[in-house]
Each structure stands twice: as C-alpha cells, then as structure tokens.
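Re: [ENG-882] Designed sequences occasionally contain unexpected residues at chain ends

Forwarding the minimal case from QA. Structure tokens:
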C-alpha cells in the first residue's frame, strides 16, 4: 500500500507504507494514516524527523543491517523533508493518506 503526503499548495510525495510509517512516527505523530499536521506544527515535526534520522545514522550497524543493504533512510526521507521545508516556507498544512495510485 502507498502513502501519499500532500500539502495544501498541491505538492505531493508517495512512498510505500513500510517506509512511510517510521517517518511519520519520527515526526512525533502517532503514526496514524490518514492524518495531518498544521503549519504551526511543521517546524517541530521536521526537527524531530531530522533528529531521528541523525540518531539512526549514528547507531552502530547490527548484523541484520549488513544483510539489508536497502536505500539509506536519509535518502528515502529526502523528498518528505523537502515537502516539509516547502510547506513551512509557504505556511501550508501537510496531510497523508493511503493511495491506490502508482508512484
């Protein structure tokens, strides 16, 4: 299942639920889909997400991590971070919901 992040200016980012859920939780939310953040809550959500990603990067790699050479979490989060930054700049809310569409 896909999760689509949008802002009220029309920008959007889609990603698989298994990748989106941890990012949603790292923004300091409950992880519920669908949900949203008000413009005034976005700076804290962005800071929380970036801090969580930095902590993951600093954590020592386990043997399981060695086997799973997937996309770096920072790279995966980049489009969402950019959407959050633009939404803060434009003072727009960010919403996310399930999407049946294609990436």
């Amino acid at each position: 299942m896909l999760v689509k992040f949008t802002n009220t200016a029309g920008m959007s980012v889609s990603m698989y639920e298994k990748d989106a859920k941890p990012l949603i939780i790292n923004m300091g939310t409950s992880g519920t889909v669908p949900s949203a953040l008000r413009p005034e809550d976005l700076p804290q959500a962005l800071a929380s997400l970036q801090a969580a990603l930095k902590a993951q990067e600093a954590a020592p790699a386990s043997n399981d991590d060695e086997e799973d050479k997937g996309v770096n979490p920072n790279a995966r989060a980049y489009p969402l971070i950019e959407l959050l930054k633009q939404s803060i700049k434009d003072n727009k809310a960010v919403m996310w919901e399930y999407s049946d569409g294609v990436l």
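QA comment: On inspection the terminal residues look reasonable. Residues 73-90 form the longest helix (18 residues). Proposing we downgrade this to a documentation issue.
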